[in-house]
Write a structure and sequence with these properties.
Layout: E1 6-8, H1 10-23, E2 28-32, E3 45-46, E4 56-57, E5 61-64, E6 75-83, E7 97-101, E8 113-116, E9 120-123, E10 126-129, E11 139-140, E12 151-153, H2 161-169, E13 174-178, E14 183-187, E15 192-193, E16 204-205, H3 208-218, E17 224-225, H4 233-246, E18 249-253, H5 264-271, E19 273-279, E20 281-282, E21 288-292, E22 295-300, H6 304-322, E23 332-336, E24 340-341, E25 347-356, E26 362-366, H7 375-380, E27 383-387, E28 393-394, E29 399-404
Parallel strand pairs: 1-19, 6-7, 14-17, 14-18, 15-16, 18-22, 20-25, 23-26
Antiparallel strand pairs: 2-13, 3-12, 4-11, 5-7, 5-8, 6-10, 9-10, 19-21, 21-22, 23-29, 24-28, 25-26, 25-27, 27-29
Helix pairs in contact: 1-6, 3-6
The protein binds ligand LQZAQKY5 and molybdate ion.
Enzyme class: transferase
GO cellular component, one term: cytosol
GO molecular function: metal ion binding; molybdopterin molybdotransferase activity
Length: 405
């Protein structure tokens, strides 16, 4: 008898992870803008200044009054000043006058239109306007992008470079963001050898550590890799406890299935807490989610492709929830470029390669090597193909959800 759900549906696993992750939301901290990239905003940003802050020119040329231009043919204006991008010189353009202006420079008083330099000829202090611009041409109006008081960023949004740049253009030097989880990464198993060392019969190189560290780093985290756990319960317990006291999230891979050396589920049941064990998905079925000491605990199955699939489909969601990310990640759909037949009823995250054709349709080519140890197939692919529970036949051209990686 267990007091936690076992062999649950993927959607249920995702819902539990999102709920528990949000309950363990990390505190927010104010952080300098250059360090906020990739984090999640923990405050709304309301525009305190308009954007652009003042009327300014969109072109290098001459600022003039449109009313002075002759409707038929050229007009000659008197050049009375020059305003470059920089501090405003408080210039004024009067009747039949113009002022030299550069892109981004404030519009002189009186001027309402800019003529591009290329459409003029200059003779001493006279400017001939060869091609008349339309009224108001090439003027960027104060506040046309953002008005004062508008909410331009919301708490829970991911801080992309464009959003950081928007905050910078409002003059913000720092922003409240969710603290990023600290993550301890463990691999397990007496068969593992670090790359660079000789391999003895029965041993394999540790590839999951690089995989998991890379996935976490690509999501903006700074994970810490611990030495590989031996298949020995006392040492596993002491190392995992150490990590769980100091980190927000502990992620292990391996030792969560049914083997005699799969010690992690028992450890969590007796010394921590299990929120669920085993999800009806392939790969990744023996996934374990719980808590140990102060940390959230994610026990990923050891097969390398299971690590990839469980991190992308559930691990990332936990990290998002812990940071209070409210914005759903974009979803993508594609047409199968070849038919597929599942040999089981579980939800499958098959690997495949995306390509888009000129008709604007995204296609995905399934890789037939579907075993969860087939890292080569995962490396040759660039997306997980989601094949729902129960359905087993997937015809060519059928629409499937894909998760690019
Ligand atoms: N009787 C059962 N056997 C298995 C079940 C089951 O339900 N009943 N589930 C299978 C499924 S599905 C998976 S997935 C695996 C998961 O097992 P574990 O999470 O306990 O992982 P391990 O046994 O430790 O390792 C599995 C596999 O992956 C290799 N591995 C482990 N760590 C690494 C690493 N860091 N780098 C590269 N490769 C690694 C390991 O050598 C094994 O080959 O269990 C099935 N069995
Ligand atoms: O579900 Mo396991 O993850 O086959 O590989």
């Amino acid at each position: 008898m267990t007091d936690f759900p076992v062999r649950i549906a993927f959607d249920e696993a995702r819902a539990i992870i999102e709920r528990i992750g949000s309950e363990h939301r990390l505190p927010s901290e104010q952080i300098a803008l250059p360090r906020a990239h990739g984090r999640v905003a923990a405050q709304d940003v309301v525009a305190a200044i308009p954007l652009p802050p003042f009327d300014n020119s969109a072109m290098d040329g001459y600022a003039l009054r449109h009313a002075d231009l002759r409707p038929d043919g050229e007009t000659t204006l008197r050049l009375t000043g020059e305003q470059f991008a920089g501090p405003s010189l408080d210039l004024r353009v009067g009747a039949d006058e113009c002022s030299r202006i550069t892109t981004g420079a404030p519009m002189p008083d009186g001027a309402d239109t800019v003529v591009m330099k290329e459409n003029t000829a200059i003779e001493g202090d006279r400017v001939r306007v060869l091609v008349a611009p339309k009224p108001g041409a090439h003027v960027r109006r104060a506040g046309e992008d953002t008005r004062v008081g508008e909410t331009v960023l919301r708490s829970g949004q991911a801080l992309t470079p464009s959003r950081i740049a928007l905050a910078a253009s409002m003059g913000l030097a720092a922003i409240d963001t969710a603290r990023r989880p600290t993550v301890a990464v463990f691999t397990t198993g007496d068969e593992l050898v670090e790359p660079g060392l000789p391999l003895r019969p029965g041993q394999i190189y540790n590839s999951n550590r690089e995989l998991l560290m890379g996935l976490l780093r690509a999501d903006g985290l700074e994970p810490t890799a611990w030495p590989t756990l031996p298949d020995e319960p006392a040492r596993i317990e002491s190392m995992l406890r150490d990590a769980a006291q100091a980190f927000d999230l502990v992620i292990t891979c391996g030792a969560v299935s049914a083997g005699e050396k799969d010690h992690i589920p028992a450890l969590l049941q007796t010394q921590g807490r299990v929120h669920f064990w085993k999800v009806r998905m392939r790969p990744g079925m023996p996934l374990l989610f719980g808590e140990l000491e102060n940390a959230m605990f994610l026990g990923l199955p050891g097969n390398p492709v299971s690590v990839l699939a469980t991190y992308l489909t559930l691990g990332r969601g936990l990290i998002d929830a812990m940071q209070g990310r409210a914005e759903p990640r974009p979803r993508f759909f594609a047409r199968l470029a070849a038919p597929w037949r599942k040999t089981h009823e579980r939800l499958e995250f098959l690997r495949g390669r995306l390509r888009s054709a000129e008709d604007g349709v995204l296609h995905v080519e399934p890789n037939p090597a579907d075993g969860s140890h087939r890292m080569r197939a995962a490396a040759d692919s660039d997306a997980l193909i989601m094949l729902p529970e129960k359905v087993q036949e997937y015809p060519t051209g059928g629409v499937v959800e894909v998760l690019p990686y």
